[in-house]
Amino acid sequence: MLIGLMSDTHDNLPMVDRAVRKLGEHRVELVLHAGDYVAGFVVPKLKDVKCRFIGVFGNNDGDHELLKNRFSEYSNMEIRDVFATIPIGRTKIALLHGSNKELLDAVTKGGNFDFVVHGHSHTSEIRKEGKTLIVNPGEVCGYLTGKSTICLLETNTRQAKIIDI
To answer: In this structure, are residues 91 and 109 in contact, taking their beta carbons and an 8 Å threshold?
Structure first.
């Protein structure tokens, strides 16, 4: 399955539009967002991915209830608090923001997941910890690094690729 990964959109609507377009061009089957949408007005822009969308909260997502309400307006979208386990067949993906370092370390080093997807640092990274592939898609917003990125994750081949947007 081809999965689009994104994080740290931080209200940058033009970059959100570009990320959604790029994910559409690659015909991803699922999008995972590792948090820091920031405001509810970002959510309608994300709905255009045209596939299932699962997200978690980040440390800059202030009004959780508003974000939950905005997500509930779209049948293809859901937000699952600060941590989510996403089973895809026999593959297990952990999705979290990564601002809680102790939790991130426990999840990445525990060996219970095939993939761990996180954000928070705004820096894209793909690395292995035992059998677990750990992916930070970087930042969509481009505010801290000056680089706007997403990631494509192919679960069958266990390959991930950072894409500039």
So the answer is: no
